[in-house]
Amino acid sequence: MSWTGNLVWDVNKRLIGYGEPNSIRTSYLGRREFVQRLKLEATLNVHDGCVNTISWNDTGEYILSGSDDTFLVITNPYNKKVKKSIRSGHRANIFSAKFMPHTNDQEIVSCSGDGIIFYTHTEKSPDYNRQCQFTCHYGTAYEIMTVPNDPYTFLSCGEDGTVRWFDLRTKTSCTKEDCKDDILINCRRAATSISISPLVPYYLAVGCSDSSVRIYDRRMLGTRATGNYMGRGTTGMCVRFVPSHLSNKSCRVTSLCYSEDGQEVLVSYSSDYIYLFDPKDDQARELKGPSEERREE
Questions:
Q1: What are phi and psi of 62, to 5 degrees?
Q2: Of 117, 109, 65, nearest in space to 90 by CA
Q3: pTM for this prediction
Q4: How far apart (Å, rounded) are the C-alpha atoms in residues 219 and 100?
Q5: Could you tell me which of 83, 156, 150 has the C-alpha nearest to residue 118?
Q6: Staple partner for 111: which of 131, 141, 176, 209, CB 3.0–4.6 Å?
């Protein structure tokens, strides 16, 4: 059977619920033939405000989304049904939300524009979930990142310049004023995006508002809660990348992510280009874009 035939059959199997929901993603993700055939399959009208974050669960069966409407929504994108709509407790725009790994999609961490992080259990009452909040960041909390195969810990980053590491085994809330217990890195400028290497999860990439991407080895880092916080933004840093023409500018990293094999990091900048670089070498290369003719098309 031709490749096209396999693709059509695999898509149909997914639609009727036969086979693994994640097989399409693992078999075809990134293949040019597949990407060129992409068309709009469905529109999920599940929010009343801008949707700032979406993420898949481990099996590829559900999507978790967060919005300016402060709701967290779990949707089955194949039958287009909402599994759960949760009034989060956030009082500002939700910017990032993730399922905690290996929790049967029942535990969610999310952060918002007011800097508050909520730990939400989908099977518990709103009153219980409202108590499970971390108010440690001051200013916007931009992103939440879970650790592969780890159902207990997660990281966050924010406008206050800190990357924080929380362990749900020690606490499920924190409302201390000016709390510094869980700071893993203090970048001393806004930390706007983070990503963990999927194959070597102790490598952590951090994008900042000073045009730089820093990669840290988490084995060399700790928090005050773990008793080995160093307090210097250079501790544990393996490499730092700044595009040469941005070295004296403050151009925010808007998003970054590792490739599936951990060999490349893709970085987008506000009002600038997208860059691809080798995390073992700070010589980045600008991604080639379409010609002017193609761009107009």
A1: -135, 155
A2: 117
A3: 0.83
A4: 21
A5: 156
A6: 141
